[in-house]
Structure formats: structure tokens, C-alpha cells
Amino acid sequence: MSAIPLIAAAGLVPQAGRIFAAVFAALAAASLVGQWLKRKKGAGNAVIANLNARIYAWWLMTLVLLAAFWFGKTGAVVLFFLISFAALREFMTLIYRRRCDYYSMAACFYVLLPVQYWLVWREWYGLFAIFIPMYGFLLLPIITGLSGQTEDFLARAAKTQWMAMICIFCLSHVPALMFLHLDGFNSENNILLPMFLIAVVQASDVLQYIWGKLIGGPKIMPALSPSKTVSGTVGGIASATALAALLAPITPFTHAQAALFGLLICLMGFFGGLVMSAIKRDYGVKDWGSMISGHGGMLDRVDSVCFAAPVFFHFLRYFWS
């Protein structure tokens, strides 16, 4: 049995099965190249070792995505609930400095996180869209104030608000895409919307890295992200925009509309990566964590998606439904 029927047997629509089959084929080719380079350059080559670690991590992440999408909408909600939990843990580990802030941190984990994803699962758009920006933003400084500690109060409250916004609210928009009802688009195919988002944004990140290594040149924002070059950024975003246009048949968009959406979410992903890098530089760390070998922490993988997902979701919600 070929790869596509096997993937289709997982309960995915045919287009999703073909996308996963193509990704697995690309990863298999990349693995062969990585092993060939390892034998040619030697196991001690740091660049090749990093490349193979990244390829291995992509295998793992793609399999996790496949497993989640296998179970449809519920699987996607559970997966991104767990991703938000891991992202919260990494963010909290970096910014948590005072014991008096324990209860505001706990509120993020045990109140805001489960309620937000429950609202997504229930498709309760009216409350899902305002729960954290309104109720969460009011609740967190109240809890911080009840600690009785006024030193750096505004900064401490803002940190927990920002953590909830990025790690919970923004990421929850990825599974929320599966509950949209778009004009001229069968809702049974909604699984293709988060796949389009993730594929384009992650491809942009990878292609920026590849173009940057191939061409080199001046850095685009060395203070925030020392590894990003002008050539890598332009080449990666342009290539990912072209990929978005090619993926138009799995979306409700024309090729031109898909390209414009691809450009939009690639730009948001790029700026999101810069913002999250600025936070890391402020705290003097290179990665958010070490959960994913070759990729740092969970937030290092989803920082671009955090900024792209809500913009993509609300554009679709207001202009295609």
C-alpha cells in the first residue's frame, strides 16, 4: 500500500493525505542527503550535525501533527492545548522571578488555558475572541495586586498578560480555523486551513535559513536576530509566498489571493520571530528551551505561528464567511 492511501486511512481528506505524503517524501530525501553529508564530512562536523538534528526534529513534529489531525477537530484542539501548555512553561521559566506572582502564573495554567481551549472546542466564537483580551487582562493584574507587592507592579502584571496573549490566545487560533464556516468551502475540509497556515509559515522560516546560508550578506536586524540576513529574509518570504500560491487548490482562495495571504502570514511570522527574539535577548538566552533537539524550545518553533495565526483567522472570519 502506498503512502497516500495509508495517510488517507487516518481519516484525513485526500488533499491533506497528499500534503503529508509530499512532506514525508521531502523529509526522506533530506534525511538521505543529511546522512550522505555526515559520511562525507564526518560525524564531528557541527553544521552537518545541526542539520541532521533539525531533520530529525521535523520528522518528529510532522508525525505529531499527523497523529493529531488523525482525530480531526478534537485532536487539533488537544494538540495545541499541549503546545500552549509547553509554551507557557517555557515563558514562565524565563520571566518568573518573584514568589508573589505564583497565583497569577497559576491562573494562566489552570484557568485561562483550559477555558480558552474549551471555548474553541465548543465553537463559542463570541467569548473565545474576547475571553483573554478582556477578562484575562483584567483578572491577571487583580491577582497580582492581591499579592500586596507593589514593586515593579506594572512590569509584573504586563509580563503575565503578554504570556497569556502569546502562549494561549494567539496559539488557540490555529485549531479554531477548523470551526470556521467559509463561503464556497466545504467545512469538512477545514483541516486544510491550519495545514496551509503551518506549511507556509514554517516553510518561510526554513527557507529564510536556507537562503541566508546560501547567499549570506548583511544582517537584517543583528541586535534582535544575529542569524537573519536580508537575502535570507527576502528569499524565504518570496519562496514561501510562491508555495502559498501553489497551495491555492486546497483553500477557498484563488492563486493570487493565496499568494497575498501567504505574504501576509509570512510577514507576520517574520515580525513575530523578531519580537520573540527581542524578549530572549533581553533575558540573555539564545533559545526558549531545549524540548526539541536542533530547534530549541517549543516557543522557538511556534513564535512565527503565534503572530500569524490570529491575523489569518480573523481575515477569514470577516471576509470569507
TrEMBL record:
<dbReference type="InterPro" id="IPR000374">
    <property type="entry name" value="PC_trans"/>
</dbReference>
<dbReference type="GO" id="GO:0016024">
    <property type="term" value="P:CDP-diacylglycerol biosynthetic process"/>
</dbReference>
<dbReference type="GO" id="GO:0004605">
    <property type="term" value="F:phosphatidate cytidylyltransferase activity"/>
</dbReference>
<feature type="transmembrane region" description="Helical">
    <location>
        <begin position="55"/>
        <end position="88"/>
    </location>
</feature>
<feature type="transmembrane region" description="Helical">
    <location>
        <begin position="191"/>
        <end position="211"/>
    </location>
</feature>
<dbReference type="GO" id="GO:0009273">
    <property type="term" value="P:peptidoglycan-based cell wall biogenesis"/>
</dbReference>
<comment type="pathway">
    <text>Phospholipid metabolism; CDP-diacylglycerol biosynthesis; CDP-diacylglycerol from sn-glycerol 3-phosphate: step 3/3.</text>
</comment>
<comment type="similarity">
    <text>Belongs to the CDS family.</text>
</comment>
<dbReference type="GO" id="GO:0005886">
    <property type="term" value="C:plasma membrane"/>
</dbReference>
<feature type="transmembrane region" description="Helical">
    <location>
        <begin position="256"/>
        <end position="279"/>
    </location>
</feature>
<feature type="transmembrane region" description="Helical">
    <location>
        <begin position="232"/>
        <end position="250"/>
    </location>
</feature>
<keyword id="KW-0548">Nucleotidyltransferase</keyword>
<feature type="transmembrane region" description="Helical">
    <location>
        <begin position="125"/>
        <end position="148"/>
    </location>
</feature>
<dbReference type="Pfam" id="PF01148">
    <property type="entry name" value="CTP_transf_1"/>
</dbReference>
<feature type="transmembrane region" description="Helical">
    <location>
        <begin position="160"/>
        <end position="179"/>
    </location>
</feature>
<keyword id="KW-0472">Membrane</keyword>
<keyword id="KW-0808">Transferase</keyword>
<feature type="transmembrane region" description="Helical">
    <location>
        <begin position="100"/>
        <end position="119"/>
    </location>
</feature>
<keyword id="KW-1133">Transmembrane helix</keyword>
<protein>
    <recommendedName>
        <fullName>Phosphatidate cytidylyltransferase</fullName>
        <ecNumber>2.7.7.41</ecNumber>
    </recommendedName>
</protein>
<keyword id="KW-0812">Transmembrane</keyword>
